[in-house]
Design brief:
five-stranded mixed beta sheet; mainly beta; 35% strand; 37 strands; six-stranded mixed beta sheet
């Protein structure tokens, strides 16, 4: 049984009228339908609709599809791929069989009439059918397309990974992998490398700027479709099938430096549906679904000295799925403790699709915002310009708080890890907020047990206070000697709420500690610190 704090996460589908219904999707072979969701819109490639080949709906336009049906009309070539820009919720990239990569800007209210290819803001001309599109996770204006002949369009049997600068309308990088097409492509967290799996069942780690394949191997023995996704900390997760007579489905965890020996391998079942992974880098969780399955597995990725994958639980219903797609982290409902939203596509008896919205929730007893459940997430601002990245620069995404939407200091995150210390809960009836910190505990002991004539104790108190002020970046919050028995040891004393310096705390723990000190001092309504009264241990620990 998993001991993860996320072991109790559970999925719950929304009511039918809060989901999407009434349109037909293109489903071919082992490929899922093509859909993309962001904070504002849902885009999906549809079949049998005369008014649009790419249907676009506002996210709040739930229920059954009714006229007017609006979207993008592909006049000459079938649409093959979609991707919303992670830094502009109104910008949609569309690839087609002819090799075009088109960019459409969708107004906030949605389209009132369908648009055609000629109305694209920018059109880039590739050599082969565009199989998939990925926006660069950290560099502005860059987008990666995987081109090949999977759909029978023009082009050779080779696969090309092409990095475009869509603003300058030029291909800035081109990497060819011969005699295959790519079935999955995924960036690492900083966007310096990609992991991709091809139709010959090889997984490749690619250095994009060097146009070099660093490593390649067949990660699963059975020659059936495999998929891969880049995780944090140089890890790679793959899905495929075991070799031998069993040929069951399996998952594996690898180091980016070694695709021959897995760190961990997990056998699942004997089902035949291809497995597809969805990665949440904020919480280091994976959601794995199979085409034709009626369940979604969710797992935790353990990093550190002994990386591993832990199966947490599964979301199960009776209706099989043909596709599952993630919403954005900026779109989760933090007031309801949602940690992920998935859009689950099911085919109905009339061949129409039903898109069920499944919210995954982390049950909590505590009230208020928790940084452990909602660590900062990538925001709308790029960390690098296209020129900086092409020149060799690397950077992780710029993060924002899910509570405030404000940027989060990167140095604090790098020093303290990716999960912020939980902020203290609201005080109970004027009692101080709970604080768990050794340094604060020492200061508390000095405040409540100070002996004015003990010069050694006085020097230790002054040293601890200075260390606390330095650690928290607080100016003029605590100074001089502590107070005892209602009389200040000097004219200085513990003052009201701390005044923060302009320098952000150096680590996440310090940031949480700063908030804790603010809360403790501001809620010390009885003036216990100034009086030197003994403070309840529960208020500090």
């Amino acid at each position: 049984v998993s001991t993860s704090k996320f072991r109790n996460v559970f999925g719950k589908a929304k009511k039918k009228n809060e989901c999407y219904d009434g349109f037909r999707l293109k489903v071919t072979g082992s490929n899922p339908p093509i859909m993309a969701v962001n904070n504002k819109f849902l885009a999906v490639i549809v079949a049998g609709v005369s008014d649009a080949d790419v249907l676009i709906r506002r996210r709040d336009q739930t229920g059954r599809l009714v006229a007017p049906i609006t979207g993008i009309k592909c006049d000459e070539a079938i649409a093959t791929s979609l991707a919303w820009c992670p830094r502009d919720d109104n910008l949609l990239a569309v690839g087609n069989m002819r090799g075009d990569l088109m960019f459409f800007r969708i107004p906030d209210g949605g389209l009132t009439d369908s648009v055609n290819e000629s109305q694209a803001e920018v059109t880039l001309k590739g050599a082969s059918a565009v199989l998939s599109i990925l926006w660069h996770p950290t560099a502005d204006k860059l987008i990666l397309s995987s081109e090949g002949s999977q759909f029978g369009g023009q082009g050779s049997a080779d696969s090309n990974l092409v990095m475009w600068n869509w603003e300058t309308k030029e291909a800035v990088l081109n990497i060819t992998v011969p005699n295959c097409h790519m079935v999955s492509v995924s960036f690492n967290y900083s966007g310096s490398h990609v992991v991709c799996t091809d139709s010959n069942h090889f997984t490749h780690v690619v250095d994009l700027r060097e146009a070099a394949i660093l490593r390649e191997a067949r990660c699963h023995k059975k020659l059936r479709r495999q998929n891969s996704v880049y995780l944090k900390d140089g890890l790679i997760f793959t899905t495929g099938f075991e070799g031998g007579a069993s040929g069951g489905r399996e998952m594996a965890l690898w180091s980016e430096n070694d695709l021959e020996t897995p760190i961990s391998r997990m056998s699942l079942d004997q089902n035949s549906g291809v497995l597809f992974p969805i990665y949440d880098p904020d919480l280091n969780m994976l959601y794995v679904w199979g085409k034709g399955d009626s369940s979604i597995l969710y797992l935790e990725v353990v990093s550190g000295d002994k990386p591993d994958i832990r199966l947490l639980s599964r979301y199960s219903v009776s209706t099989p799925q043909v596709g599952v797609y993630p919403g954005t982290k900026r779109g989760v409902d933090i007031d309801s403790n949602e940690v992920m939203t998935l859009y689950k596509v099911q085919m109905q008896s009339n061949q129409n699709a039903f898109v069920e919205i499944v919210n995954f929730t982390y049950p909590r007893r505590e009230q208020g915002f928790s940084y452990e459940v909602y660590p900062p997430t990538p925001g709308l601002k790029a960390a690098l310009s296209a020129e900086e990245w092409l020149g060799g620069g690397d950077a992780e995404p710029l993060l924002v708080s899910l509570k405030t939407g404000e940027p989060v200091d990167e140095s604090a995150l790098k020093a303290g890890g990716t999960t912020l210390t939980r902020q203290p809960t609201a005080p109970r009836g004027g009692a101080a907020t709970k604080v768990t910190n050794e340094l604060l505990g020492k200061v508390k002991e000095m405040v409540t047990g100070f002996t004015e004539t003990d010069t050694t104790q006085l020097e230790e108190y002054k040293r601890l206070v200075e260390q606390l002020r330095s650690t928290l970046g607080i100016s003029n919050s605590m100074s001089g000697r502590p107070v005892t028995n209602g009389t200040a040891a000097t004219s200085s004393k513990v003052t009201a709420a701390p005044v923060r310096s302009t320098t952000t705390a150096g680590t996440q723990e310090e940031a949480g500690l700063m908030a804790a000190v603010d809360s403790f001092v501001s809620n010390d309504k009885e003036g216990r610190l100034e009086k030197g009264d003994s403070t309840d241990d529960a208020d500090w620990n």
